[in-house]
Amino acid sequence: MKKTKKNFSEDERILILDLLSRHRSVVESKRTDAAFMSRKRDSWKKIQDEFNCLYNVTP
């Protein structure tokens, strides 16, 4: 059986957890109203942008 490659390195995993902790109150909220969902999308976009702009992240 073929061994699966890990999706993230240990450094990337730590970075993602750090970014998520900064946006935890929004990302983990159960609210689903339109205004809050917009905030949630914005938070995920910020997390994505911050993660992708770092030099040690590989595509």
Automatic annotation (TrEMBL):
Myb/SANT-like DNA-binding domain location: 5-53
Domain of life: Eukaryota
InterPro entries listed in its UniProt record: Myb_DNA-bind_5
Alphabetical list of Pfam families matching this protein: Myb_DNA-bind_5
Function: Involved in transvection phenomena (= synapsis-dependent gene expression), where the synaptic pairing of chromosomes carrying genes with which zeste interacts influences the expression of these genes. Zeste binds to DNA and stimulates transcription from a nearby promoter.
Subunit structure, as described in the record: Self-associates forming complexes of several hundred monomers.
Name of the protein this chain belongs to: Regulatory protein zeste
